[in-house]
């Protein structure tokens, strides 16, 4: 319908001006992340041969899940083609209650402590719509997943931002996402009479930070002290590396009653397109989410829920065992992470080692001689760097400043985010799985994407050629 991106923006602008208060107009359109994300997706499609910007796996989901979906749609049970229970297909809420009951060490009622949503995105939307009223403040930890800010504003709330502050790594060591920490006094200063909730995202997108028990206790104590809710986005709960433990804040003293856990089958089983998510929490909170859900989406796709339920059944039976997908997936992703770290170091970036998720943030400040900064520019340096990289090196990534509020963008503008859940571009570019460096070349001007497969084309440099569609 819309011939260009500009036409979409124009349509929304005129709609917002007519139909919405100016604060809503601002949140939908002036949030630079939304504009820059659209811009970056477009740029990636136009120029990039290697897209490590977008946050989804380029490998297939596990066979057991695909088979479960096939059975659901082609089996005898024709009811799976019809509406199911509005707040979650019974087999799915039952298995989620069983699994999370085990993880949280408490008995959960599938009907009142679990609600299925259209991905974690809708779960988040339900939370903000249900709990946030005009004048409420919501604390958001930066860098943050982009939708929190507009969703809080759409509900009439005011986001209050607190950045994770990086501390210098040990001499000669790469920084870790664990080096990005909250300042306890600063965090305490953000809580006020108006604080309704804090949004916690651990493991965190984009940094890959996995909050430690001490950090979670700090947040929990403040929530209890100020009677605040915790919206705990745990979509990357199974993607944790180097033996780190994902701790659920709802399991800490005083937190179950004030926490809603948000989860995603998309991230859990590498099926982002199925859009199955959930919330887990006390009935006193979930009853309000049910009201929002019932009056917006109401039902989620039955067959997809059925297949996800079967996937969880399988995982529960194999919990902690080597053939569990929850064990295998992080093991494979950790290898891709390490491969990407090596490649980035080789071209002169300074990767921040993520403890979790499939994202990695790299420091690009060394590139200022190659891609000079433009003083007084409105555009953050990382955004210009990412555009330069996609045009000149054929590589797409997302500037980290896009994950900060307008006031803080310029403080964190020399980093870019990569997604390493990409088989072809991190482990091997050719479907045959031949070893290929993602970023191959000598440090300095010559780096770029070169295929080291023995394919018939090219020959530059050092045994490789520039990527092309064949690769
Ligand atoms: C932190 C975070 N929360 C929520 C979501 C949304 O998940 P879903 O695809 O299940 O809606 C994402 C997706 O990228 C995410 O990174």
TrEMBL record:
The keyword Transferase applies. The keyword Transferase applies. Its cofactor is pyridoxal 5'-phosphate. GO terms for biological process: kynurenine metabolic process; response to bacterium. Gene3D superfamilies: Aspartate Aminotransferase, domain 1 (3.90.1150.10), Type I PLP-dependent aspartate aminotransferase-like (Major domain) (3.40.640.10). It comes from the Eukaryota. GO terms for molecular function: cysteine-S-conjugate beta-lyase activity; kynurenine-oxoglutarate transaminase activity; protein homodimerization activity; pyridoxal phosphate binding. Pathway: Amino-acid degradation; L-kynurenine degradation; kynurenate from L-kynurenine: step 1/2. One of its GO terms (cellular component) is mitochondrion. It holds the Pfam family Aminotran_1_2. CDD domains: AAT_like. Residues 50-423 form the Aminotransferase class I/classII large domain. Keywords: Aminotransferase, Pyridoxal phosphate, Transferase. It catalyses: an S-substituted L-cysteine + H2O = a thiol + pyruvate + NH4(+); L-kynurenine + 2-oxoglutarate = kynurenate + L-glutamate + H2O. This is Kynurenine aminotransferase 1.
């Amino acid at each position: 319908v819309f011939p260009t991106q500009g036409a979409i923006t124009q349509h929304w602008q005129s709609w917002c001006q007519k139909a919405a208060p100016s604060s809503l107009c601002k949140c939908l359109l002036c949030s630079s992340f939304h504009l820059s994300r659209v811009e970056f997706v477009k740029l990636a499609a136009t120029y990039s041969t290697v897209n490590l910007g977008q946050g989804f796996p380029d490998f297939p989901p596990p066979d057991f899940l695909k088979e479960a979906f096939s059975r659901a749609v082609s089996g005898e049970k024709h009811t799976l083609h019809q509406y199911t229970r509005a707040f979650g297909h019974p087999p799915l809420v039952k298995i989620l209650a069983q699994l999370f009951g085990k993880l949280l060490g408490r008995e959960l009622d599938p009907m009142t402590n679990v609600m299925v949503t259209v991905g974690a995105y809708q779960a988040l939307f339900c939370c903000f719509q249900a709990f946030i009223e005009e004048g409420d403040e919501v604390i958001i930890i930066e860098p943050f997943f982009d939708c929190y800010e507009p969703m809080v504003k759409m509900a009439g709330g005011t986001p209050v931002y607190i950045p994770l502050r990086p501390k210098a790594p040990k001499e000669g060591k790469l920084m870790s996402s664990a080096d990005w920490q909250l300042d306890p006094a600063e965090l305490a200063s953000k809580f006020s009479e108006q604080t309704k909730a804090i949004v916690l995202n651990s493991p965190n997108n984009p940094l890959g930070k996995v909050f430690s028990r001490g950090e979670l206790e700090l947040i929990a104590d403040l929530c209890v002290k100020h009677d605040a809710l915790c919206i705990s986005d745990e979509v990357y709960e199974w993607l944790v590396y180097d033996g780190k433990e994902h701790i659920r804040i709802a399991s800490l003293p005083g937190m179950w009653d004030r926490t809603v856990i948000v989860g995603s089958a998309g991230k859990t089983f590498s099926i982002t397109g199925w859009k199955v998510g959930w919330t887990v929490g006390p009935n006193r909170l979930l009853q309000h989410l049910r009201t929002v859900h019932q009056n917006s989406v109401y039902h989620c796709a039955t067959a997809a829920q059925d297949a996800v339920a079967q996937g969880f059944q399988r995982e529960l039976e194999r919990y902690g065992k080597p053939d569990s997908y929850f064990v295998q997936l992080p093991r494979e992703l950790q290898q891709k992470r390490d491969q990407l770290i090596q490649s980035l170091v080789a071209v002169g970036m300074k990767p921040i080692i993520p403890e979790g998720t499939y994202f990695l943030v790299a420091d690009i400040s060394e590139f200022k001689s190659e891609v000079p900064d433009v003083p007084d520019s409105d555009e953050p340096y990382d955004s210009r760097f990412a555009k330069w990289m996609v045009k000149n090196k054929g590589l797409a990534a997302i500037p980290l400043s896009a994950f900060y509020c307008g006031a803080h963008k310029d403080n964190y503008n020399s980093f870019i985010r990569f997604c390493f859940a990409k088989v072809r571009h991190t482990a091997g570019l050719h479907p045959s799985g031949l070893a290929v460096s993602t970023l191959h070349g000598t440090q300095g001007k010559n780096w770029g994407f070169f295929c080291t497969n023995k394919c018939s084309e090219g020959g530059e440099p050092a045994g490789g050629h520039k990527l092309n569609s064949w690769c």
